[in-house]
Amino acid sequence: MSKLFLIFFLGVLISACSKTPYYEKTFSFENKTWKDDVKPKFFIDIKNIENPYNFTLTIRTTTDYNYSCIWLFMKSVMPDGSIKREPFKVQITNEDGSWIGNKTGSIIETELSFQPQLLPQKGKYAFTIELGITESKINEVLDLGLRVEEIKK
Questions:
Q1: Chosen CATH of 22-150 out of 3.30.1600, 2.60.120, 2.40.30, 1.10.1070
Q2: What is the pLDDT of residues 110-120, one digit of tens each?
Q3: pTM attached to this predicted model
Q4: What is the distance, to the nearest Å, from the Cα of residue 18 to the centroid of all Cα atoms in its chain?
């Protein structure tokens, strides 16, 4: 009987340690190129507005990426149809050229985390990410992900 309890306890412990995000999706860019007319969209159905949420954007580039940052616009469409558009700068390298994100082989993963926030309405939110640069494309960008975690009280 004690072995069964131990197995059950370890199973509960392992599942408690692995925090599953409320939402997580990744958009992959064709041929490692983000063209200015490509605008990844993420749709999230928010059912609980009493708990705050953590939002994290993840950008994966290669070590051949030629810039020190990426400028983005995030357009948010609320369930009631209201729209908000904000600019963001994702720093990819330090001033000395060293990578800020996690490097695995030739891939750099950089995160932009937002302050935890309460969402004002229940329902479906749409988040669109647009390039905020004057060039028509940037090369050596693999993918862009959005992770949302609910902070349970």
A1: 2.60.120
A2: 999 999 999 99
A3: 0.84
A4: 18
